Amino acid sequence: MDRIQIIVGTVNGSAWKAAQAAAAILQALGYGTEVNEEARPQDLLRDPTETILVCCSTTGDGDVPRNIYPVYAALDNEALDLCGRKYGVIALGDRGYPRFAHAGLLLEDALYRSGAMPVGNMLTIDAQVDERPHYTAARWAKDWSEALKC
Prior knowledge:
Helix content: 25-40%
Structural class: alpha/beta
Strand content: 15-25%
CATH topology: Rossmann fold
Number of strands: 6
Shape: globular
CATH superfamily: Flavodoxin domain
Mean pLDDT: 95
CATH class: Alpha Beta
Radius of gyration: 14 Å
Number of domains: 1
Order of helices and strands: EHEEHEHEEH
Low-confidence stretches: none
């Protein structure tokens, strides 16, 4: 079955935990997955058939976490051609801040501008409401996998 590279942007580990939960569900459904917490721009180019799933928290004033910033910068500068690649986004944030889940929105926009094709809707997880974001990510991943088949 298809391969999915899960690119993680995290500061305190919540996005990593959500990515691991999504990966477990996707693996159980027969997908090959890799959770990549130290992604570099070239990682997105290694296999043109691989689906990209970004799982990213928001830090500071709506900023992209430092560990995923090189990927975001390359995408934002349109340095990567991802034409035809499928992608999804899980965005974690806290609605108490003005730029709720903004890093996920930035990455979603940059992926789209790089030519990648969105699959399903972006999942936004609010830390004020959802005490178990990894469960929410796992449930979403199951539904998202159905959209991948279309």
